[in-house]
Design brief:
alpha+beta
């Protein structure tokens, strides 16, 4: 059930019709972590909307994100700009990776005031940590899972992945600075603990 504030944000973004809301624990644009307003990401066949503040973003080498939402910014991703959505519906740890066209990733980075001295988000770039917008929902029930499938499968944008592939993408999506401190080989050797370590590493 969508509340009034969700409808206001959805209409402000210029999208019409019904939509679904997803409550997220963490979001990263490339390697930049930020806190979404009230945790909600809105989506429909028209696109994706999230709202945050520039003050809530933590870029590489900076302080952790703040809960200060005094400078709100609405981020809108029209469905025409989506390249692919990769989703793991693992019960304990769902995760969504979103790839978009360069025009949109550049526009979003400018909106949020991300560093102009280096690329933060580019799905076609060489650096793995720059390629994705990563959403970590608190949980996904069957209704929310079906909403994602029904919204994006007909548009050939949806690919479901298992937790092993999701863990690999999480590792690749971490800051390139951290890549030098943690060996992928070490994680493979500790398979029984891999999920927790990947999650903690990504959320840090």
């Amino acid at each position: 059930m969508n509340d009034a504030s969700d409808w206001v944000r959805w209409n402000y973004a210029g999208f019409g019709g019904p939509f679904s809301a997803m409550n997220c624990l963490s979001i990263r644009i490339g390697y930049s972590k930020f806190i979404p307003l009230v945790g909600c990401v809105l989506f429909s066949s028209a696109g994706i909307v999230l709202e945050t503040s520039k003050k809530s973003i933590a870029n590489r080498g900076e302080q952790p994100p703040s809960n200060d939402f005094s400078d709100l910014t609405t981020v809108t991703i029209p469905v025409e700009q989506l390249l692919q959505m990769e989703v793991s519906f693992n019960r304990k740890f769902p995760v969504i990776f979103i790839y978009v066209k360069p025009a949109t990733s550049n526009s979003v980075c400018r909106q949020l005031g991300l560093s102009r001295n280096e690329i933060n988000w580019n799905s076609f770039g060489q650096e793995e940590s720059h390629k994705r917008l990563t959403l970590i929902p608190y949980s996904l029930n069957d209704v929310e899972k079906n909403a994602l499938r029904q919204t994006f499968i007909p548009q050939n944008l949806f690919r479901e992945i298992d937790i092993v592939e999701a863990e690999k993408l999480l590792f690749l999506s971490a800051s390139p600075d951290n890549h030098a401190t943690v060996s992928a080989g070490t994680k493979i050797k500790t398979a029984s603990k891999r999920k927790t370590r990947y999650v903690d590493y990504f959320l840090a």
